[in-house]
């Protein structure tokens, strides 16, 4: 199989976990390499078939550094899947991206080890030119929450350079019909919006919601709160940047009502980030409170606490999404990948149950078209 050539916007914790994971699972000499992954093989592609060919950031500690150094640079604070001293030397140099609205003003008020240190001296590169020069297949968007202008700028760069787009943050592009139409016109697939971690708060909320409905219960209240200590949570202290994130996280819960024709407004639904505690670093603590009505109106109360390392928890999902996009492109599927988006993202263009989304992904992994994907094949 040929390599899947990816470019990455934002070399933060999520990119660090992804790139370390690609090396970890791509090492042919490592035993039991598939443990911890959802899918070892998708359309003939494994983790070892993915390579980073371009990387963009705006932090002066990363711009100009080779990728093997940049993924461990501050303010990154995720766990080391691979010891930095053992990570292979990379030929990819991180280039200056476009700032636009990608950095919140309040980030300047925190210690350098915890926040962004913007490189204002280096000129940003021509993104479209670099994507074409590096022959990238897929552009991965890891911009901070609230980067509306920047996310749309990079989405347009993907279209202009003929590159598929993986939107891992909550700016609504794949789920926006106008943007989807642009990707269809360009003959490109897209997955989005807002990455749903492998075993994180959103997928757990979804499964709890599905279980309650499947067992005949009414959901009166579903509250999910999150605390963390990485730059993502620090960035979200600026509540003006939170609107799309809160919508995205609540969509995971709300869409389960929509699928069943229920009115979500009859339940109290809340999901969102609640605080930043630097001590936690990349560890995220999520709490869940559900109040249900069961047989004869009898009350059921569920409370739980989840502790995960946020960035590695999403990296495996991204490795899968990359391969779904590559296979979709080879099959001529254009626009938003509904099944893969529903399986990997918080706000997909079309809500599905876990089972239905998984079915679509399994078919795509086997290079089989479904009734859904047949409609999306380029004529």
General description of the model:
By secondary structure, the protein is α/β, with parallel strands linked by helices. The chain has 2 domains: 4-196 and 312-374, NAD(P)-binding Rossmann-like Domain (Rossmann fold), CATH 3.40.50; 201-310, Dihydrodipicolinate Reductase, domain 2 (2-Layer Sandwich). 34% of the residues lie in helices and 19% in strands. It contains 12 helices and 11 strands. The strands form 2 sheets. The chain has a 7-stranded parallel sheet with strand order 3-2-1-4-5-6-11, sandwiched between helices. Strands 8-7-9-10 form a 4-stranded mixed sheet. Helix 5 links the parallel strand 5 and strand 6. Helix 3 packs across helix 4 and helix 6 (201-214) runs parallel beside helix 8. The longest helix is centred in the last third of the chain and has 22 residues, at 310-331. The chain is globular and about 65 Å long. It starts with a strand and ends in a 5-residue tail after the last helix. The model has no long low-confidence stretch (mean pLDDT 94).
Helix-strand blueprint:
Elements: E1 4-9, H1 13-26, E2 50-57, H2 67-70, E3 95-96, H3 127-133, E4 138-141, H4 148-161, E5 164-167, H5 177-185, E6 189-191, H6 201-214, E7 218-228, H7 231-235, H8 243-259, E8 268-276, E9 283-293, E10 299-309, H9 310-331, E11 335-336, H10 338-344, H11 354-365, H12 371-374
Helix pairs in contact: 1-9, 3-4, 6-8, 10-11
């Amino acid at each position: 199989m040929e390599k899947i050539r990816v470019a990455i916007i934002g070399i933060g914790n999520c990119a660090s976990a992804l790139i370390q994971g690609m090396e970890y699972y791509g090492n042919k000499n490592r035993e039991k390499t598939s443990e911890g992954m959802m899918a070892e093989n998708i359309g003939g592609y494994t983790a070892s078939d993915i390579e980073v060919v371009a990387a963009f950031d705006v932090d002066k500690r990363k711009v100009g550094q080779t990728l093997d150094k940049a993924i461990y640079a501050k303010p990154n604070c995720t766990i080391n899947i691979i010891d930095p001293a053992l990570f292979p030397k990379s030929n990819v140099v991180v280039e200056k991206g476009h700032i636009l609205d990608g950095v919140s003003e309040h980030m300047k008020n925190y210690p350098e080890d915890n926040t962004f240190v913007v490189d204002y001296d280096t000129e940003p590169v021509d993104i479209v030119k670099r994507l074409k020069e590096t022959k990238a297949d897929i552009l991965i968007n890891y911009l901070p929450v609230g980067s509306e202008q920047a996310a749309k700028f990079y989405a347009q760069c993907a279209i202009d350079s003929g590159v598929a787009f993986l939107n891992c943050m909550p700016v609504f592009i794949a789920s926006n019909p106008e943007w989807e139409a642009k990707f269809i016109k360009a003959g490109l697939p897209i997955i989005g919006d807002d990455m749903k971690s492998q075993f994180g708060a959103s997928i757990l909320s979804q499964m709890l919601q599905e279980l309650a409905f499947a067992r005949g219960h009414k959901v009166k209240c579903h509250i999910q709160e999150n605390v963390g200590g990485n730059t993502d949570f620090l960035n979200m202290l600026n509540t003006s940047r939170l609107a799309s994130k809160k919508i995205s996280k609540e969509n995971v819960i709300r869409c389960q009502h929509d699928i069943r024709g229920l009115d979500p407004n009859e339940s109290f639904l809340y999901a969102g980030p609640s605080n930043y505690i630097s001590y936690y670093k990349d560890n995220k603590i999520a709490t869940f409170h559900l109040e249900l009505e069961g047989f004869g109106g009898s009350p059921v109360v569920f409370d739980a606490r989840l502790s995960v390392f946020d960035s590695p928890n999403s990296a495996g999902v991204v490795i899968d999404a990359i391969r779904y996009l590559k296979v979709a492109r080879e099959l001529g599927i254009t626009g938003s990948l509904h099944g893969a988006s529903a399986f990997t993202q918080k706000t997909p263009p079309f809500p599905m149950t876990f089972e239905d989304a998984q079915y679509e992904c399994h078919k795509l992994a086997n290079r089989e078209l479904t009734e859904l994907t047949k409609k999306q094949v380029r004529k």
